[in-house]
Specification:
Aspartate Aminotransferase, domain 2, 2 domains, 36% helix, binds pyridoxal-5'-phosphate
Length: 459
């Protein structure tokens, strides 16, 4: 397969070409720009040619505090016991926090678990946050959450998931992703509808909502499986499924069904955690009190760390080693979690985000005037949106979405700024998710740049 190439980008093209010979394409989802990023600071990436790209991805909703934040990094070094004014010379090693301590306990891990629980409990709806089950990726944490739900009563094995969710590609996380139509279906999983048709605009959280059809689906499962039902898992909003942000009443209905029938209510906050919905956690935004919350992505601001957090009786149902692995509770990860918690504690990150959030939202909503834009959905007061395209003028929605990603990247031309976006979700939804720390000036400049690109495209 030939590597993607772009004019005027000799260094980027060399990297693209080299990657094609070093790594399989399966490592990435398809993005028509295939941006090469040499350096980053805050909400700005720099290509090897020195062009600036506004980061509208945060990796994939990971670097919520921006790239290479100075205070976060200082704190990270301090937690690891690494000097910030140069490493000691004169010896091959220096004493600091261990880089790994498999099966041992490190004080930094104790600190991270305690601090994380404190923050989760302090948020409204966090009353059930009692134990931290660390993991190295979001899908692993989902897997561990479901293992715990299954372990509490091994005669109960049916898991309910909301249709078209994305929870990862591995094991049980894959099994609860998508819908019945997906090939590798686990017979333990049953799906219920997510109210996608009722997610038609930016945050209709308090919109009137008819629970009847959704209640009917849940009741049918109860009738079929009774006490075999053990857990229900949902994302607060469909992320990878195309940015669908539901009325609160829907999620509250799911939670009530769990309470009434003794199912474990698992909320997958791998994507929404640490501010994307405008609160630190989406259970606060949506008025929920989950039994287990699954965290990831923004938890380490770029260091790979995840966790399933929740009721002690559930996690206590698993014995020694049932959820152990090489990386979980690794000190490098715990230092990142502590630095992230510190940053959210020390500064009003979410308050400071509001202005940028409304600037980006306003700019995106204006795109609806363009004939190829079908909808803009997202979190009011948060930092995540989806721009959905439609079939128009002989081009499919998927073609328009890809063209928009490319046009934003090309931006103001070879020496000018661009906007970095990912390949479309669900083929036709362009995700917008800058770091929460994007400044109002950057928000205004970047959304104007995106609008110029979209208008050029519309002709
Ligand atoms: C809601 C949600 N859950 C789980 C995952 C899987 O996380 P990971 O890719 O770290 O395994 C993702 C990743 O995009 C996600 O968005």
């Amino acid at each position: 397969m030939n590597a993607i190439q772009h004019p005027n980008e000799p260094r980027s093209n060399a990297n693209r070409e080299a990657t094609a010979h070093l790594e399989p394409v399966a490592l990435r989802t398809f993005t028509p720009t295939q941006a090469v990023i040499a350096a980053s600071a805050g909400a700005i990436h720099f290509t090897p040619e020195g062009r600036r790209l506004y980061d509208y991805t945060s990796g994939v909703l990971v670097s919520n505090l921006g790239h290479n934040p100075t205070e976060w990094t200082r704190r990270y070094f301090a937690y690891m016991g690494w000097p910030t004014n140069g490493l000691p010379t004169g010896g091959p090693y220096f004493p600091a926090v261990p880089m790994t301590a498999y099966n041992a306990i490190t004080p930094i891990e104790v600190n991270a678990s305690k601090r994380l629980l404190d923050v989760l409990r302090a948020a409204p709806g966090g009353a059930r946050m009692e134990r931290v089950m660390w993991a190295a990726s979001g899908s692993e944490a989902i897997q561990k959450a479901l293992w715990a739900a299954l372990a509490r009563d091994r005669t109960r094995h049916v898991i309910v998931a909301t249709r078209f969710g994305f929870h990862g590609k591995k094991g049980l996380a894959n099994a609860i992703t998508g819908s019945e139509a997906d090939a590798e279906r686990d017979p333990r999983v049953r799906f219920v509808s997510f109210p996608m048709a009722e997610c038609g605009d930016v945050s209709l959280r308090d919109a009137p909502f008819d629970p009847a059809p959704y209640q009917k689906e849940l009741d049918a499962l109860l009738h079929q499986f009774g006490r075999k039902l053990t857990a229900l898992v949902t994302e607060p909003y469909l992320g990878g499924g195309g940015s669908y942000h539901p009325p609160k009443a829907y999620l509250q209905l799911l939670q009530r069904f769990c309470r009434d029938n003794d199912l474990v209510f698992v909320l997958d906050e791998v994507q929404s955690n640490f501010g994307r919905t405008g609160s630190l956690f989406a259970y606060e935004t949506y008025g929920l009190e989950p039994d287990v919350v699954v965290l990831g992505k923004g938890l380490g601001n770029g260091v790979p760390v995840a966790a399933a957090v929740g009721r002690a009786d559930l996690f206590g149902a698993m014995g020694y080693g049932e959820a152990s692995d090489t990386w979980s509770a690794n000190p490098l990860c715990c230092a990142a979690v502590l630095a992230t918690l510190d940053e959210f504690g020390a500064r009003d990150v979410l308050g400071a985000m509001k202005e940028s959030s409304s600037i980006v939202e306003r700019g995106l909503v204006e795109l609806k005037a363009l004939p190829f834009v079908a909808a803009v959905r997202g979190e009011r007061g948060g930092m995540v949106w989806g721009v959905e395209t439609r079939d128009h003028a002989g081009r499919t929605a998927a073609e328009w979405a890809s063209a928009l990603v490319l046009a934003a990247y090309e931006g103001d031309g070879p020496q000018g700024d661009g906007v970095h976006l990912l390949g479309p979700l669900a083929k036709k939804v362009v995700r917008v998710s800058p770091p929460l720390t994007i400044t109002p000036a950057e928000a205004a400049a970047s959304v104007a740049l995106l609008a110029r690109a979209a208008q050029r495209l519309a002709g």
